[in-house]
C-alpha cells in the first residue's frame, strides 16, 4: 500500500460509497460470511473467547507453543483496535492533515482509512489464524456450569471443552445516562468510521483521548466540532499544562471546547440534534459522537454459572490474571482499568504463561505508557505530579523545553516539553510527560529505562546524534548529574585542579 491513496480512492468513487470495495475486502477477512466452524475434536488446552488484541495474541502464541487452541469471536477478528479503534482513528488523523482544505477532504479521508484497514486486516484474519494452527469459531460464546464453552452461531450450538479458558472480550463505548441521547442515534467509535456523508456539525461528548483525537481530525475535514466534558479540563488525567497546550492547539483549529458542563437532555428535530446544557445554553448539530469512557463486554458470557466474580468495572482478577474460577483467566479491557491495546498485548503474554504452565507471570508493578495522538501529541508514563503528591512522595521534576532544542527550532515545531519525575535525591524515573511532535515515539527510551531500573544518569553515558529531539535524554541526564556536584565535591575538585596547575 503506497503512501498516496489518490489513485485507489478514485477507483472507488463509482461504488456504493468511497471505499466500499475496501470495506468488502476487510469484512470478508475478519468475519467471512461463508465461513463454516470446525467440528470439535477432543479437548482443547485453551479456549480463548474474544479475538481482539489480547485474544489474538493469547491464541496464536499458545498455538505456536504447541497447544491445541480454540478462538471464539462474535463480531469481527481484530476487535476494536483493527476495526473501529486504533487503526481507523490513526489513519483518519493522518489523512485529515494531508487533505485539510480540499473540497473533498472528508471523502478522501474516509476512503483512506478504509483502504488502510483493509490492507492490515489479513494479519488478524480468520485465514491467517487457521494457518497458524488456531481453530477459529465465529459466533457468540457462553460459559457453562460444567466448565465448558458453548458457541452459538447461525448453524446451531457447539460445545467445547478445555483445560483452561481465557476471557478477552474487550470493551465498548460507555453510554452516559442522558435523557434523549439514545433517541438521537449517537455515533460511537463503533459507528463513526462508517459515515459516508459529511455532517456540517458534530458534538463530541467526552474530551479524553478519543474525543480529543477525533475532534481535531473532523475539524480539519471541515466539520464544525463542539467538544464537551464534565471535567474541568480536557485530557483530565494528564498534567494540567499538557491539557492547556492541547486546548490552545485544538481551539486554533476552530474547535469549540466546553468544559465543566453538564448536559441536561438531548432533543431531536428532523436531522438536527439539540444538546441542552444545565446552564441554559444549547448546541445544535447534525451528529453526536459519544466518547465518554469504556464499558467491559460482560453480557452473554454467563459468568455466574461459571462462578466468575465481576462488577460493572469488569471481571475481577488477581495480578496473575486468574479469576475466582481457577480454570478461567482474563486479559485485556474486560479486566483492566487501563484499556489500551499495548497493555492488552502485555497481559496476553502473562495469560499464555499462566494458562499453559505454572502461574509465575505477573502484571504487578507494570508501568503502562499512553499517548494521545493529537497535534501536539501527549504521552505519559508512570505517575503525574498530583498522583505523587497524593501518595506523599517527595519528587524532583527535570524538564526540557522544545523551544530550547536545536532540531525543534529548525523544524519550527517548538510547542511542548519533556518533564521527568524522580524521587528526591534519586534518578529513578517515577513519571514522565512529553508534549510535542512525536511524543509517543520519544517516550519509548524512558519506558525502556523505567522497566529496566535505569536512572537518568545512565542516559548521560549514551552518545546521541545531533541535531535530534532524542537529545532531550542527554540534557535531562546533564541536569541530574550537575546536582551530584555537591559543595564538598566541588571544593575537592578545585583543590585538585589548583594543585595540578
Describe this structure in words.
The protein has 501 residues and is α/β, with parallel strands linked by helices. It has 3 domains: 20-32 and 42-173 and 295-356, 3-Layer(bba) Sandwich (FAD/NAD(P)-binding domain), CATH 3.50.50.60; 182-292, 3-Layer(bba) Sandwich (FAD/NAD(P)-binding domain); 377-483, 2-Layer Sandwich (Enolase-like, domain 1). The protein contains 18 helices and 24 strands. The strands form 7 sheets. A 5-stranded parallel β-sheet has the order 3-2-1-7-19. β1 (44-49), α3 and β2 (69-73) form a beta-alpha-beta unit. The N and C termini lie far apart (66 Å). Mean pLDDT is 94; it is low at 1-14.
Oligomer: single chain
Number of helices: 18
Q: Count up the domains.
A: 3
Strand content: 15-25%
Rg calc: 25 Å
Mean pLDDT: 94
Which parts are unreliable, with pLDDT below 50 for 5 consecutive residues or more?
A: 1-14
CATH superfamily of the largest domain: FAD/NAD(P)-binding domain
Identify the overall geometry. globular
Top CATH class of the largest domain: Alpha Beta
List keywords for this structure.
FAD/NAD(P)-binding domain, Enolase-like, domain 1, five-stranded antiparallel β-sheet, 34% helix, five-stranded parallel β-sheet, single chain, disordered N terminus, 24 strands
Task: Provide the fold topology.
Layout: H1 6-12, H2 20-30, E1 44-49, H3 53-64, E2 69-73, H4 79-84, H5 86-99, H6 105-120, H7 126-131, E3 134-138, E4 140-143, E5 149-153, E6 156-160, E7 162-167, E8 171-173, E9 201-205, H8 209-220, E10 224-229, H9 240-252, E11 256-259, E12 263-269, E13 272-277, E14 282-285, E15 287-290, E16 294-296, H10 303-306, E17 310-311, E18 314-315, E19 328-330, H11 341-356, E20 370-372, E21 377-382, H12 385-390, E22 395-401, H13 406-411, E23 417-423, E24 429-436, H14 439-442, H15 444-451, H16 456-459, H17 472-483, H18 487-500
Parallel strand pairs: 1-2, 1-7, 2-3, 7-19, 9-10, 9-15, 10-11
Antiparallel strand pairs: 4-5, 5-6, 8-16, 12-13, 13-14, 17-18, 20-21, 21-24, 22-23, 23-24
Amino acid at each position: 500500500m503506497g503512501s498516496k491513496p489518490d489513485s485507489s480512492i478514485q477507483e472507488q468513487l463509482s461504488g456504493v460509497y468511497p471505499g466500499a470495495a475496501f470495506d468488502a475486502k476487510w469484512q470478508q477477512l475478519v468475519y467471512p460470511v461463508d465461513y463454516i466452524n470446525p467440528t470439535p475434536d477432543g479437548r482443547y488446552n485453551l479456549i480463548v473467547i474474544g479475538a481482539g488484541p489480547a485474544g489474538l495474541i493469547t491464541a496464536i502464541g499458545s498455538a505456536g507453543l504447541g497447544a491445541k487452541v480454540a478462538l471464539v469471536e462474535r463480531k469481527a477478528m481484530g476487535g476494536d483496535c483493527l476495526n473501529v479503534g486504533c487503526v481507523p482513528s490513526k489513519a483518519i488523523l493522518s489523512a485529515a492533515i494531508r487533505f485539510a482544505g480540499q473540497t473533498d477532504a472528508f471523502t478522501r479521508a474516509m476512503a483512506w482509512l478504509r483502504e488502510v484497514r483493509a490492507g492490515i486486516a489479513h494479519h488478524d484474519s480468520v485465514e491467517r489464524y487457521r494457518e497458524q494452527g488456531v481453530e477459529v469459531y465465529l459466533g457468540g460464546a457462553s460459559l457453562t456450569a460444567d466448565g465448558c464453552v458453548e458457541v452459538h452461531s447461525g448453524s446451531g450450538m457447539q460445545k467445547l471443552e478445555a483445560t483452561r479458558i481465557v476471557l478477552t472480550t474487550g470493551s465498548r463505548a460507555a453510554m452516559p445516562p442522558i435523557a434523549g441521547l439514545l433517541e438521537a442515534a449517537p455515533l460511537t467509535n463503533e459507528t463513526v468510521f462508517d459515515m459516508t456523508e459529511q455532517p456540517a456539525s458534530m458534538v463530541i461528548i467526552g474530551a479524553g483521548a478519543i474525543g480529543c483525537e477525533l475532534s481535531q481530525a473532523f475539524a480539519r475535514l471541515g466539520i464544525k466540532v463542539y467538544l464537551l466534558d464534565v471535567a474541568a479540563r480536557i485530557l483530565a488525567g494528564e498534567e494540567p499544562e499538557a491539557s492547556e497546550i492541547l486546548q490552545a492547539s485544538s481551539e486554533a483549529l476552530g474547535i469549540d471546547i466546553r468544559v465543566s458542563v453538564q448536559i441536561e437532555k438531548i432533543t431531536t428535530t428532523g436531522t438536527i440534534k439539540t444538546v441542552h446544557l444545565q446552564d441554559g445554553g444549547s448546541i445544535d448539530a447534525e451528529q453526536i459522537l459519544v466518547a465518554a469512557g469504556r464499558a467491559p463486554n460482560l453480557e452473554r458470557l454467563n459468568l455466574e454459572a461459571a462462578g466468575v466474580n465481576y462488577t460493572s468495572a469488569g471481571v475481577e482478577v488477581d495480578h496473575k490474571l486468574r479469576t475466582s474460577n481457577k480454570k478461567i483467566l482474563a486479559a485485556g479491557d474486560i479486566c483492566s482499568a487501563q484499556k489500551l491495546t499495548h497493555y492488552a498485548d502485555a497481559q496476553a503474554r502473562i495469560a499464555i504463561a499462566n494458562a499453559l504452565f505454572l502461574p509465575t507471570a505477573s502484571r504487578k508493578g507494570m508501568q503502562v505508557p499512553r499517548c494521545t495522538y493529537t497535534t501536539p501529541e501527549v504521552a505519559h508514563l508512570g505517575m503525574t505530579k498530583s498522583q505523587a503528591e497524593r501518595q506523599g512522595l517527595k519528587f524532583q521534576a527535570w524538564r526540557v523545553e522544545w523551544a530550547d532544542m536545536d532540531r525543534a527550532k529548525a523544524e519550527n515545531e517548538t510547542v511542548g516539553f519533556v518533564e521527568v519525575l524522580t524521587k528526591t535525591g534519586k534518578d529513578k524515573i517515577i513519571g514522565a510527560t512529553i508534549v510535542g511532535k512525536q511524543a509517543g515515539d520519544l517516550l519509548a527510551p524512558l519506558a525502556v529505562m523505567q522497566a529496566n531500573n535505569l536512572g537518568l544518569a545512565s542516559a548521560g553515558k549514551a552518545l546521541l546524534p545531533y541535531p535530534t529531539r532524542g537529545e532531550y535524554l542527554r540534557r535531562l541526564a546533564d541536569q541530574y548529574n550537575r546536582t551530584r556536584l555537591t559543595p564538598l565535591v566541588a571544593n575537592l575538585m578545585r583543590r585538585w585542579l589548583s594543585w595540578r596547575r
